[in-house]
């Protein structure tokens, strides 16, 4: 019987966190980092190509991803939406299940505890939660990717 591979993604145009689950068990994670590339067009292409390469290499069956939340910055919103669409297109093209969560939705599937409301408080909560659940110290991008995938696992347990 084939293992089920789940990848969680916390996307951005500069740093995208990814997590790797096999049969519902957290196995690996990391960050695709293109923050040094100042040209946003090149950075977007590099990020999308890197995400495609990661998904192909991991032979993924399901992608869990955070949907874009409305931000104050229209340019950032457009870039995040483009990345989300690129990942969706890759999933459709490769017959991979695509699951989107709103930020509040995946956090509620992880824990019912109060998480804070400000961006920095939420990032700190994610890092601390991953350390508590998996005994792993990670960046906030990586933590969110781990927890987004874990939310999907929790939803079906």
TrEMBL record:
Q: Which Pfam families match?
A: RuvC
MF terms (GO), sorted A to Z: DNA binding; DNA endonuclease activity; hydrolase activity
Q: Name one GO biological process term.
A: DNA repair
Write down the InterPro entries for this protein, in alphabetical order. Answer: RNaseH-like_sf, RNaseH_sf, X-over_junc_endoDNase_RuvC
Entries under SUPFAM superfamilies matching the protein: Ribonuclease H-like (SSF53098)
The broad enzyme category this protein falls into is: hydrolase
TM segment ranges: none
Q: What is the E.C. number?
A: 3.1.22.4
Task: List UniProt keywords, sorted A-Z.
Answer: DNA damage, DNA recombination, DNA repair, DNA-binding, Hydrolase, Magnesium
Write out the similarity annotation.
Answer: Belongs to the RuvC family.
What is the protein's given name?
Crossover junction endodeoxyribonuclease RuvC
């Amino acid at each position: 019987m084939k293992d089920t591979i789940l990848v969680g993604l916390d996307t951005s145009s500069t740093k995208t966190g990814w997590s790797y689950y096999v049969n519902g068990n957290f196995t690996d994670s990391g960050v695709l980092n293109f923050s040094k590339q100042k040209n946003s067009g090149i950075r977007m292409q590099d990020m999308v190509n890197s995400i495609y390469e990661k998904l192909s290499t991991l032979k993924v069956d399901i992608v869990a991803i955070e949907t874009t939340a409305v931000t104050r910055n229209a340019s950032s919103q457009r870039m995040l939406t483009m990345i989300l669409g690129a990942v969706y297109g890759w999933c459709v093209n490769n017959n991979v299940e695509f699951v989107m969560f709103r930020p509040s939705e995946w956090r509620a599937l992880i824990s019912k505890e109060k998480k804070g409301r400000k961006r920095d408080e939420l990032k700190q909560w994610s890092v601390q939660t991953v350390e508590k659940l998996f005994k792993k110290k990670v960046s906030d991008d990586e933590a969110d990717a781990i927890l987004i995938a874990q939310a999907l696992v929790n939803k079906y347990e």
